[in-house]
Amino acid sequence: MRYAVSVPNFRPADLAVADGSVSHLSTLVDWALAAEAAGWDGFFLWDHLLFWKSWRLLIDDPWLVLAAIAARTQRIRLGPMVTPLPRRRPWKLARECVSLDHLSGGRLILGAGQGAPVEADYLPFGEPGEPTTLASVLDEGLQVLDGLWRGEPFTFHGQHYHLDDVTFLPRPLQSPRPPIWIGGTWPKPGPMRRAARWDGVFPLKFSGPNEFSPLLPDDVRALRAFIAEHRPNTADPFDVVVAGSTPGPDPTRMSEIVGPYIEAGITWWVEGLDWFTYQRPEAIAERIAQGPPRR
Prior knowledge:
Layout: E1 2-7, E2 10-12, H1 25-38, E3 42-45, E4 57-59, H2 62-72, E5 77-80, E6 83-84, H3 90-103, E7 110-113, H4 118-121, H5 131-148, E8 154-157, E9 162-166, E10 180-185, H6 189-196, E11 200-204, E12 206-208, E13 211-212, H7 217-230, E14 239-244, H8 251-264, E15 268-272, H9 275-278, H10 281-290
Helix pairs in contact: 1-2, 1-10, 3-5, 6-7, 7-8
């Protein structure tokens, strides 16, 4: 059982950071260092371009931040949760991931999904936002990533991508490749079937348009049963990752919250530390320093 911190790659424009800068890149790096010191196992960043068009947000590029974190930390796993693969060139992402995997000494976990909201991160840039198109592009992009990371001559001809006899070197440090966790909405079967083909699942549960509700332990049990039914080789390791929130100063209450999820079969608990809940950077830093909700 492992525990991670997840933070947005943006902050509201009306929230100042300690040094008065318009970016909080150094703050994100400091949080990652604090997370490693406090015993967390992972530090994950959101990956958005705008997130919401009507909001005034100051946004940092998550991949540059992750590179800075990789260079400053020693143990903690890191990655995007999740990166919207359909708005990326998969060969460019493949190169970035290999570089980050080497820079971190083999600590990258790649979270990948269709990406949302399309109204802010796709449509304003002339990118397609139709869900079935994004799903098709995502599936091909994942195949391209996997093929390029093998470090052998690779040819691929799909509906969206065409590669002819290309060899990407070096290979990732991790073998056979960095773990790929698929983000998606439970209980939609399409994203869950996709996740079953890879290394893990990071599910969300919608209660309405752009509204989330907590994934419950019974959801986890049903999800694990679905994955087992659709996974080609159930003997291979597979991560079930759930995001939630626990009160740091209260170990008993933390155990009461996380315990049922562990019993239901999760392998990672991701502590969601967003601006909407915590409001101030000092509050996020305090929760990180309190450490993970280990039982």
